[in-house]
Amino acid sequence: MHRHTFASLPSHTTRAFTSTTPHRPPPPPHKYWLNITSTRSTLHSPYRHLSTTTTTTTTTISTPTMSDPHKPPNPSTLDPIESAKRKAAFRAVEEHFNSSMRFVGIGSGSTIVYGVEAIAAHLKAHPPPQPYQNWFVPTGWNSRKVIEAAGLLPIAFDSLPGDAMLEVCFDGADEVDEELNCIKGGGACLFQEKLVACRSKKFVCIADYRKDQKRLCTKWKTVPIEVAPIAHASVLRELKLIGSPDAALREHALAKTGPIQTDQSFYIIDAPFKQLLTSMDDGVWDVDSLAKRIKSINGVLEVGLFHGMNGYQTQKAGLQGGQKPVAVYFGLEDGEVLVRKADEIE
């Protein structure tokens, strides 16, 4: 209960009052802690029957120290998988970034916090030549916060100069096949990730060993699809007709909060498919054919299959950029980094 002391000073006595008003329980301890201390004091009167004892309760609120989720954790505290991601990120940045790059894309994958850490370390050791300024293009709200937390300068995709190309884009993936096709969209940022990749001279992917598979939809069973809210039911119906009967709208863990929404206020549908084929296979759905078929459905904004040409191939063809990575860096369990590269840079 709360205890409140009121002082009444018309004479030399003090009376103590205690309220019994119930209070709300304190919030969960991960937000803040309540520290309650009580002190008792006695006010003596020349007249014994007027002597009183008062109790004062002091409540203080303290906030526990919590790590910033947008900053990289201490390397010594990392588990083997996170350590593998970090080593892959530092290797990728070492081989594909330099301080003279004006515009660099930063993805939204779980590995990107380490990629940004590596970039910040590189810039600290090798400041950009004057009058150069490095700008970093985020693929969503979270990646923007990661950029800012590292002390780097973000620039929105739609604020880029019209003739500007990004020198490189660093991003993660949910799964990568032997032809470097990727499934992306587990973090619901696939539309902006594809925008940035296709505006970059090269897309470099950073992942851990679990993402390295011979075919897509091996361990990551679903293809994320970004859809207009008004069209989600009709998109679900058509997905069932083309071979994904268990396609489902992605919802928050707390059901009453409804479907997850992207930065564009669109919904995400996760559509399970059997293992996708590559150009070397015969069968129903290869990666390119499935991506094009889903994209043709009315109401679909983007598909989480990053396929087709990479940045080197598109530039050679006189185009802007490619959605497939030119190289993928897989952090391994033994601390090594496996690099798979496109034929153009082998």
UniProtKB/TrEMBL annotation:
UniProt pathway: Carbohydrate degradation; pentose phosphate pathway; D-ribose 5-phosphate from D-ribulose 5-phosphate (non-oxidative stage): step 1/1
Polar residues: compositionally biased ranges: 8-21
Quote the SUPFAM superfamilies the UniProt record gives: D-ribose-5-phosphate isomerase (RpiA), lid domain, NagB/RpiA/CoA transferase-like
UniProt-listed Enzyme Commission number(s): 5.3.1.6
Root EC class = isomerase
GO MF terms listed in the record are: ribose-5-phosphate isomerase activity
Question: Which Pfam families does this chain map to?
Answer: Rib_5-P_isom_A
Ordered alphabetically, the record's keywords are:
Isomerase
Any GO BP: D-ribose metabolic process
Q: Where in the sequence does UniProt note compositional bias of the Low complexity kind? A: 52-65
Instruction: Output the superkingdom of the source species.
Output: Eukaryota
Q: Does the keyword Isomerase apply?
A: yes
Record carries keyword Isomerase: yes
Q: Could you tell me which residues belong to the region Disordered?
A: 1-29, 51-76
Give the reactions, separated by semicolons, that this protein catalyses: aldehydo-D-ribose 5-phosphate = D-ribulose 5-phosphate
What PANTHER family does its record include?
RIBOSE-5-PHOSPHATE ISOMERASE
Q: What is this protein called?
A: Ribose-5-phosphate isomerase
Q: Which organism is it from?
A: Baudoinia panamericana (strain UAMH 10762) (Angels' share fungus)
